[in-house]
Design goal:
Layout: H1 2-38, E1 48-50, H2 60-70, H3 79-91, E2 103-105, H4 106-122
Antiparallel strand pairs: 1-2
Helix pairs in contact: 1-3, 1-4, 2-3, 2-4
């Protein structure tokens, strides 16, 4: 019985830690976006980028696509870009295709990343 309880507690702890890792990454991405938007001189926020976010809602796949889009921008070596890829890897969407054709300015794109991360953060733990 003790062994069974230890196994159950281990599974619960690992599941909780994995969920926490995703939550931490999302909060770090949100903070990175806020920092970049506040320090507008550090990047060209008027650059046009492909818009991968739908008008309503977003998913982990869209965060992966945002990371792919950022590869061709001045932010390609930023912590934000690295964290977007880390979250894509965490969520199992590391290999994604960008098929959108509409473009927006970088500051709009960053706001959409922030909004999507907030939406993902508020989602309940997947079963």
């Amino acid at each position: 019985m003790r062994t069974f309880m230890l196994l159950v507690l281990t599974i619960v702890a690992v599941t909780g830690i994995k969920h926490k890792a995703g939550q931490i990454l999302l909060m770090e991405i949100i903070d990175d976006v806020k920092q970049i938007l506040n320090q507008s001189s550090s990047t060209n926020l008027n650059q046009f980028v492909i818009d991968v976010f739908p008008p309503v809602g977003c998913s982990e796949k869209h965060i992966c696509q945002a990371a792919m889009v950022m590869m061709n921008t001045e932010l390609s070596h930023s912590m934000l870009h690295r964290r977007l890829f880390a979250y894509a890897n965490y969520s199992g969407h590391l290999h994604c295709n960008v098929t959108a054709s509409e473009e927006h300015r970088m500051h709009v794109f960053l706001e959409k990343i922030k909004d999507c991360c907030k939406a993902q953060y508020s989602k309940p733990l997947k079963q």
